[in-house]
Design brief:
167 residues; alpha+beta; Thiol Ester Dehydrase, Chain A; 5-stranded antiparallel sheet; 4 helices; 5 strands; 35% helix; elongated
Length: 167
């Protein structure tokens, strides 16, 4: 009887470990820490100096963050239905090299940190043809209740959809 209990416990531990590995594998297959968002520089993105206007980079990083969230199951409409969402507290962008009309751009984005009611998202903006780094950016996002507009704790069902990645 005692041996049976040990074997039974061991089988339970093995089963539990296998379930954990399977769940972990499914989670990593369904989400990626780094999301790649592709953009083509449009004529309207160009400023009087002949390169991409700096405010366009803000649009690109916002679009990349929304696309990453949507790919992980949290679309704008899902946030709206849940009555929760993100608002930008600050953006910081370092412009390194210019981008020009017609170029293919890749915005790499990831969640770098979660706090109780905020998150840091980082970005690297690259020219696709040669992977030249054009800009690096960071956004501090606050999580809010959309009705009261007050800060809200980030629920586990949101937090668990994103893998935090640090460079």
């Amino acid at each position: 009887m005692r041996v049976t209990m040990v074997v039974s416990t061991r089988l339970t531990m093995i089963r539990s470990s296998e379930e954990s590995i399977t769940a972990s594998r499914k989670k990593s297959e369904s989400m990626s820490a780094i999301y790649l968002h592709n953009v083509t520089v449009a004529p309207e993105d160009i400023d009087g100096q002949g390169h991409v206007n700096n405010v366009v980079y803000v649009r690109w990083i916002q679009d990349a963050g929304v696309a990453h969230s949507s790919a992980n199951g949290w679309t704008p409409s899902r946030y709206q239905q849940a009555g929760i969402g993100w608002v930008a507290r600050s953006h910081h962008i370092d412009y390194l090299k210019p981008a020009f009309e017609g170029e293919q751009i890749v915005v790499r984005t990831w969640v770098a940190d979660f706090k109780r009611v905020s998150s840091i998202r980082r970005y690297r903006i690259l020219r696709a043809s040669d992977e030249t780094e054009l800009a690096v950016a960071e956004t501090n996002w606050a999580f809010v209740n959309l009705v009261s507009r007050a800060p809200a704790r980030i629920p586990p069902e949101v937090r668990d959809c994103f893998e935090v990645w640090t460079e």
